[in-house]
């Protein structure tokens, strides 16, 4: 297949891993699709996915949620993505790439083939149930093998080996790690650090065997395999995962005669060009300055440099820092620069070891004690960010460098955000400097979320979240953007503080709150910011009818009239249809009401029916008919529980494993009427096919064979965000308990009009903190949150039913107090058999 | 002083006070809408009632010039920089109740009418037909 395009050159990218995908993103960003027709080949059947978080696949994340972009990203940018198509050769003479399906001409070619796991040449390494840990297919194979296994061994105690061990442990296997070197993670830690790491990992029930060279693998007695070591000691296990390092996948380059490194890898220059200037290489297949970079950060930097090279840009790749911080099996490990101190003649060291708390820290400093050359951390990575800044920016160390690693009894000399130079790298994944952050603030970003969106900082591995926050806070403050958190001129408090005051003092009306706690400079009327916010807080705490006389002036028009105002001043009406389940009789009743009042009818995304075009004075009559037909208000007008979307689940579906509709009904009936800082959407899917799209909701529930997986803080809308897996295989009761706590904690701590997704982005400590609070009850407020939720649930009453009982409340629904004539401004026209505003 | 007196007299001379509704039709710290007959034809006013405040009653256009919809009475009442205002329920612009001026765009102004209680009656001053 030779497609010739008159004006565009053909650019082929081989490999659709993390770096290959990043390259495409960079090319798109630089407008390269104007100059090139781009074809990307991926050998795997999956779109590029996040290998860094591969282990979460076992915790319930699927390929789609690990994907690095939306499935239509490539098509949207006119890029041809050919998955499941392995490239088998490169014909440089004819400028063609050969696959098993055809030949494709290239003008420029990029190798992003990555690496493969090295399997040591041990007799028996090809036995069944001897696997590797690299791709989703590998993980599927491990999962399948684990089903028949009770024990598992990982060969290799490095970073990936410990990741794999964690995965085996997660599959409930008795797990051991076998390492050739005298300690775990020999690249990152020294013997003290390694010893501590061993203790911590053994305390998790993972056996650690070091200085073991496997001689052969043969049939076991009690287990499937028997591993025989150099000293003839043996270890029996059912499953073996090799994770003994990586090797570049350079066979295509080798076969077509590109210059190779002695021990593999395609040689590239600073522009990522190989010995053939038409061909570039990036990522783990590329050898720069005799080094292969086995981390995603440097790979991204190469991808960026390659994109510049292909678009006549100036940026080059000049090597990358291999500093890293990780949490492996729950243990913090950090390594910065020359952590061992063996590459820096004359280096001096500081060490701190606490065997009780199991923490170890080491500094490698220059001979004059002024510069940090490297550092090593085991047990507590909170020191990492500051040390990294000293290291990467060459900052002069404090007089006593040891203070940087000593426990912070009298307050460690934290490196203030102001001490960092403009060139300091804040986010190494996306290469965002402090200067970039400042520029985004100058360009109008006024909070952390906006800066993240603008710069992408802290959206990769997230390791820099705390540092980014402190820089943003500091920069905002220094610009005199008085980070005034007052909700408005009437209250010198944040929404969270007002919530606390209302709770603690039991204040039940706006007038009492503004009298006791309002600013003195105002007329005490409040405004359209604080009034709805306080109304929402009062409703979240006490759940009194919002149409009560003391609450009605606080409400936005939608809440006041319990319907959604449309652009011509009419309203739309959305009755609750829990879980999207509705009887034919109720459907007919909806249709009859719509017909009688000439309402435009549309199905919503939340599995209910929206009736548009109701005039204010018709609302009570419409609702009387709906309530008579068995409906309740749907709160579509409120910052409140909206819908719980569901699929039919095990009741009907061949694939369903739980009764998703039943759970959706349970959830919707529990939380209906709950008011919160913003609207709340839920969904329940009956199996992992996820037809209810639960991962785009504030609270998503997906059935598993053992119960329910809970996802939180997802969002559709303008800024979509995948929900994150929060807990797995929950029973009904625990599921509800967690949702109770989660929602009430959100209501307690979120800003006004802050959706759960943004709240989560801004939450110090992130998902781990949220899990600590909700699951492990680290703040000791679990029961309190539950009982507060129960109070709201117990006080639920349909607001429309309440209003219809009260003639005084109904008076409010007159369009005009002195005349019955309709609003002549509301003019409608017919379109597709329905009425719409003219 | 004398000028003011003259003006007031002129104003009084050109207007007629009409009964709009009764006090219990109003909603405290919020608004209701009503029809009036003016020299230019029928018009819709938004009436706001702030019991206990220096000025308790305000009447402004019910028509929102930004949204071109009759909705002002359904906005939230508040005070900004010491001045009572109403926020449009559609696009949230603020209008001063005293003179109808839009705080976000001072070239836009709602009409205003004098209003007062006479006993239980809500009275509005309308230019003589």
From TrEMBL, chain A:
KW Heme (keyword) present: yes
Keyword terms, alphabetized: 2Fe-2S, 4Fe-4S, FAD, Flavoprotein, Heme, Iron, Iron-sulfur, Metal-binding, Nitrate assimilation, Oxidoreductase
Gene name as annotated: nirB
Domain FAD/NAD(P)-binding residues, every copy: 10-297
Protein name: Nitrite reductase large subunit
Domain Nitrite/sulphite reductase 4Fe-4S, residue spans: 638-759
Domain of life: Bacteria
Pathway assigned in UniProt: Nitrogen metabolism; nitrate reduction (assimilation)
Lineage, broadest ranks: Bacteria, Pseudomonadati, Pseudomonadota, Gammaproteobacteria, Oceanospirillales
Provenance organism: Litchfieldella qijiaojingensis
From TrEMBL, chain B:
PROSITE patterns per UniProt: NIRD
Positions of the Rieske-like [2Fe-2S] domain: 16-124
Keywords, in A-Z order: Nitrate assimilation, Oxidoreductase
Pfam families (UniProt xref): Rieske_2
KW Oxidoreductase (keyword) present: yes
Gene3D superfamilies in the cross-refs: Rieske [2Fe-2S] iron-sulphur domain
InterPro entries attached to this UniProt entry: NirD, Rieske-like_NirD, Rieske_2Fe-2S_sf
Protein name, as recorded: Nitrite reductase small subunit
Origin organism lineage: Bacteria, Pseudomonadati, Pseudomonadota, Gammaproteobacteria, Oceanospirillales
């Amino acid at each position: 297949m030779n497609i010739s395009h008159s004006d565009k050159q053909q650019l082929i990218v081989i490999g659709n891993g993390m770096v290959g995908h990043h390259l495409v993103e960079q090319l798109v960003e630089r407008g390269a699709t104007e100059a090139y027709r781009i074809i990307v080949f991926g050998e795997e059947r999956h779109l590029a996915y996040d290998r860094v978080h591969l282990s979460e696949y076992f915790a319930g994340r699927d390929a789609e949620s690990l994907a690095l972009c939306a499935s239509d990203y490539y098509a949207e940018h006119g890029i041809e993505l050919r998955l499941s198509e392995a490239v088998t050769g490169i014909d440089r003479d004819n400028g063609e790439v050969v696959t098993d399906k055809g030949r494709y001409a290239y003008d420029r070619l990029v190798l992003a083939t990555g690496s493969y796991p090295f399997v040591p040449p041990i007799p028996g390494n090809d036995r069944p149930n001897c696997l590797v840990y690299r791709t989703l297919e590998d993980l599927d194979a491990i999962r399948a093998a684990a089903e028949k296994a009770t024990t598992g061994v990982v060969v290799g105690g490095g970073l990936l080996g410990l990741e794999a061990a964690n995965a085996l442990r997660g599959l409930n296997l008795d797990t051991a790690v076998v390492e050739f070197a005298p300690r775990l993670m020999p690249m990152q830690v020294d013997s003290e650090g390694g010893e501590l790491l061993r203790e911590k990992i053994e305390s998790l029930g993972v056996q650690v065997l070091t200085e073991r060279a496997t001689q052969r693998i043969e049939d076991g007695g009690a287990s499937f395999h028997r591993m025989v070591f150099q000293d003839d000691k043996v270890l029996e296990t059912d499953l073996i995962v090799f994770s003994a390092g990586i090797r570049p996948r350079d066979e295509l380059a080798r076969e077509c005669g590109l210059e190779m490194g002695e021990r593999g890898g395609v040689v590239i220059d600073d522009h990522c060009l190989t010995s053939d200037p038409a061909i570039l290489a990036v990522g783990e297949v590329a050898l720069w300055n005799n080094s292969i970079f086995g981390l995603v950060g440097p790979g991204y930097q190469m991808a960026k440099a390659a994109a510049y090279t292909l678009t006549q840009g100036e940026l080059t790749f000049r090597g990358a820092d291999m500093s890293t911080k990780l949490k492996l099996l729950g243990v913090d490990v950090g390594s910065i620069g020359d952590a061992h101190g063996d590459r820096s003649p004359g280096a001096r060291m500081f060490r701190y070891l606490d065997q009780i708390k199991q923490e170890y820290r080491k500094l490698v400093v220059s001979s004059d004690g002024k510069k940090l050359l490297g550092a090593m951390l085991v047990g507590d990575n909170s020191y990492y960010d500051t040390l990294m800044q000293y290291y990467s920016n060459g900052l002069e160390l404090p007089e006593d460098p040891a203070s940087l690693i000593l426990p912070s009894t009298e307050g460690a000399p934290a490196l203030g955000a102001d001490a960092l130079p403009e060139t300091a790298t804040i986010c190494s994944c996306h290469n965002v400097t402090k200067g970039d952050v400042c520029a985004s603030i100058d360009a109008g970003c006024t909070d952390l979320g906006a800066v993240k969106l603008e710069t992408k900082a802290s959206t990769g591995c997230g390791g820099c979240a705390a540092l980014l926050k402190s820089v943003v806070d500091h920069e905002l403050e220094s610009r005199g953007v008085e980070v005034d958190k007052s909700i408005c001129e009437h209250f010198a408090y944040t929404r969270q503080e007002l919530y606390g005051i209302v709770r603690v003092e039991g204040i039940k009306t706006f007038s009492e709150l503004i009298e006791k706690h309002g600013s003195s400079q105002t007329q005490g009327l409040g405004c359209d910011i604080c009034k709805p916010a306080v109304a929402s807080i009062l409703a979240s705490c006490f759940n009194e009818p919002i149409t009560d006389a003391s609450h009605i002036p606080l409400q936005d028009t939608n809440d006041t009239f319990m319907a959604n105002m449309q652009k011509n001043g009419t309203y739309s009406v959305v009755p609750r249809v829990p879980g999207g389940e509705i009887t034919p009789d109720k459907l007919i009743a909806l249709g009859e009401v719509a017909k009688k009042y000439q309402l435009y009818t549309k199905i919503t995304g939340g599995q209910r029916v929206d009736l548009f075009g109701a005039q204010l004075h018709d609302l009570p009559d419409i609702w009387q008919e709906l309530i008579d037909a068995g409906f309740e208000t749907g709160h579509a007008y409120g910052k409140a529980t909206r819908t719980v979307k569901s699929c039919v689940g095990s009741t009907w579906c061949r694939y369903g494993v739980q009764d998703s509709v039943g759970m959706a009904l349970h959830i919707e009936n529990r939380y209906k009427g709950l008011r919160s800082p913003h609207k709340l959407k839920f969904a329940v899917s009956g199996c992992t096919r996820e037809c209810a799209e639960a991962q785009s909701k504030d609270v998503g529930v997906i059935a598993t064979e053992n119960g329910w997986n809970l996802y939180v803080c997802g969002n559709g809308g303008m800024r979509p965000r995948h929900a994150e897996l929060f807990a797995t295989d929950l029973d009904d009761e625990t599921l509800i308990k967690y949702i109770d706590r989660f929602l009430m904690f959100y209501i307690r701590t979120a800003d006004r009009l802050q959706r759960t997704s943004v709240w989560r982005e801004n939450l110090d400590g992130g998902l781990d903190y949220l899990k600590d609070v909700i699951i492990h009850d680290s703040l000791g407020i679990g029961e309190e949150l539950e009982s507060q939720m129960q109070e709201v649930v117990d006080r639920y009453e349909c607001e429309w039913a309440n209003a219809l009982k009260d003639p005084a409340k109904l008076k409010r629904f007159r369009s005009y107090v002195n005349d019955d004539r309709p609003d002549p401004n509301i003019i409608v026209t017919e379109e597709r058999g329905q009425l719409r505003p003219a | 002083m004398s000028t003011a007196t003259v003006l007031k007299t002129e104003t009084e001379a050109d207007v007629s006070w009409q009964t709009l509704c009764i006090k219990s039709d109003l909603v405290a710290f919020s608004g209701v809408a009503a029809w009036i007959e003016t020299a230019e034809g029928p018009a819709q006013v938004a009436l706001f009632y702030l019991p206990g405040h220096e000025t308790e009653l305000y009447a402004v256009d019910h028509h929102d010039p930004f949204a071109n919809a009759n909705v002002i009475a359904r906005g939230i009442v508040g005070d900004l920089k010491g001045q009572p205002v109403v926020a449009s329920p559609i696009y949230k612009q603020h209008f001063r109740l005293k003179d109808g001026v839009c705080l976000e765009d001072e070239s836009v102004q709602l009409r205003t009418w004098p209003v007062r209680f006479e006993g239980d009656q809500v009275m509005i001053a309308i230019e003589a037909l």
